[in-house]
Fold this protein.
Amino acid sequence: MKRMTSLIACFALAFSLAAHSGEKVTLKLAHHGVAGEIFTIFCDRFAERVSKETDGVVVINNFGNGQLGNVNEMLSGVQVGFIDIGLHDHASLAPFVPEMAVFNAPYIYKDAISFMKVVDPYASPVMQKLNQRLTKDGGMRVIGNCYRGARNISCKFPVYSPADLKGQKMRGVPLPVWTTMINGIGAIPTPMDFAEVPTALSTGVIVAQENPLNNIYTSKVYEVSPYISITEHMQSAQVIFINENNWQSIPAERRAVIERILRELAVESIQWEKDSSAELIKNLKANGAAIITAADGLKVEEFRESVLKQVNKDFPEWREIIAEIQAMQGL
């Protein structure tokens, strides 16, 4: 442990000296997006703009599709500073600040704009309070968000209500809030990394999964789960977090540029998703997927009531913070 601590200290010192000497600072960014997905596009544009607007002083190298490891490996890499920046769901930061998972709670947001205001690290009192704890307890800092869209269920057979999934195995992100959400639906939670999902659906290990439409389409998961129920049970974003020591080692004026770019891209990502939704549904239908909405008999309120009941049961400690989040939206 002492050896590891020394290595981390040396790494941080070397990074700091390079940053403050005016030399080029190179940052490693890890995410799990595939080509064409919104947050892959986000990361590419982020890297391009940072390089251009810092005159090449700050360079971001993107490692997508899980090249630098699974979620836990990404988190530990960012925490010690061997990976500078990570992107994942807010709930992945819960091992350091348990309440971070509340941002992934289902059915607590009015719409995408409200959601992104709640998770904004520069303007949201809720996020700022939790971010201070993440910096202190986890050695990381939230610096941005990329909107991905609302999450929906795709299944091997039509799903109209929670009763249709009762006792069926459904993939969830391997985080507790997903287990709660799937239990609330009545399905059997089957946590796994997303890379395993197409095979698990093909072989019958699971019958259903849930993701934003963009991910369902770009990953072609609709080929093995062609019935898509528009439940919109969660608002989805990828939170951008950075090792705190490495962040502070970047000169303040460069950090300000990065922050501005991230805030602008956060707003743009909402529009990207909005612009792409109709086209995604069109493309999914053209490729044989069936879209099930309330007009087709989807019982969204049954999902909402069942899932929120489970959330209240499993996370009674969230009631106050959920109330604060909903008050921010005028709910």
The chain has twelve helices and nine strands. The radius of gyration is 20 Å. Residues 1-21 have pLDDT under 50 and may be disordered.
